[in-house]
Amino acid sequence: MALISKKKTTYPISSTLRKYLIKYDRETKLPVQYTDLMRYDNTIPLRDRNDKDSLWESVFYPQSDMQQVHNDLKEIYAMLKSGGDLSVMQHLYVDRIDSCVYGNTLPFRVRIVNRINDNFDYFYIKVADASRIYGLELEHLLSPNRISYYVDRNTLVEQHIVGVPGDQFIKQYLDDPNLNKTRLAKEFVKFNERCFIRLLGDMHSSNFVVNITPDFEDVDYRIRAIDFDQQSYEGRKSIYLPQYFKENNPLIEIGLNCMTVETVRQYQKEERSLIARRYKVSRAEIADLLRAMSSDKISPIENVRKLGKDLAKHYSDPDFEQCETMGDLVKRSLDKVIENKQVYQFPV
């Protein structure tokens, strides 16, 4: 069973990471900062559709500030969705601003609504945590998903990642007669592999979503991470394997019933091959990112040593124990993919 030991430290953006963000257009001037949103003067608890506490609070601003705050937030949404084309703002309005007081980066969630058709979307404004930024960028470069986000000084703005929350999916969809268990199990194996290779931790069912896509006569599934705070932080190997979180056990059981060891290995090899291809396509960008990450402190040294020892044993590769930072460990892990030598045997 995988358990997070305690709340993770928030790490500031280093000068090397800042240079990377500027070089690849992730750093930009934002019309509003995270600290500006902290100037609300009232809150009310937000209830979900079942009238349960959502653990979010809707925040309210003084009338003298509200219009400016809403205009600034619509401008940020235009930056995320249309490269800053402000013409998309014409029919949009800010319906709600929510604050989550239990998250590592204390995020604000902004709900944007199109007044013509009542369609809505979200985005998030958070304290810029270096761990999370590395996680977002690795997801963008090495997974089948693309991530839209911007940084301005100590403020991070992220797009909303659409999907059914993993815990809700497990409760509501696993008994669906149309569920394709084999495809779902295959996707979980591939997701497990993606997380392990790039050392993204804490992927229990509340930290990922499931996209369900009709596919000719059947359905297909894509599991997407939505929380990147635990990118390369913990010292135990099991934290980076979603298969070890008890919340994911129903998905594990489906895999055990649907797949053989040979099938699992085939899917692992497929995913590693795809990651190697993405690595080669974005080689220069990934090299710059890993150079910044390798010179950055985003985890206590004892965590680096413990994880290096675990990975050295796992891969039978003593080079992992020579790594000095989490960035070094990620680089060595990706080197193993390029070398195409070993896959992780799942399930165990």
What does this 3D model show about the protein?
The chain is α+β, with helices and mostly antiparallel strands and 348 residues long. It folds into two domains: 15-159, no CATH class; 164-339, Phosphatidylinositol 3-kinase Catalytic Subunit, Chain A, Domain 5, CATH 1.10.1070. 41% of the residues lie in helices and 18% in strands. The protein contains eleven helices and ten strands. It has helices spanning 15-23, 34-37, 63-82, 130-142, 166-172, 181-198, 249-258, 261-281, 283-294, 301-315, 326-339, and strands spanning 42-47, 53-60, 92-99, 108-114, 120-127, 149-152, 155-159, 164-165, 208-215, 218-225. Helix 6 (181-198) packs across helix 7 (249-258), helix 6 (181-198) packs across helix 8 and helix 9 (283-294) packs antiparallel against helix 11 (326-339). The longest helix is centred in the C-terminal third of the chain and has 21 residues, at 261-281. The radius of gyration is 21 Å and the shape is globular. The model has no long low-confidence stretch (mean pLDDT 92).
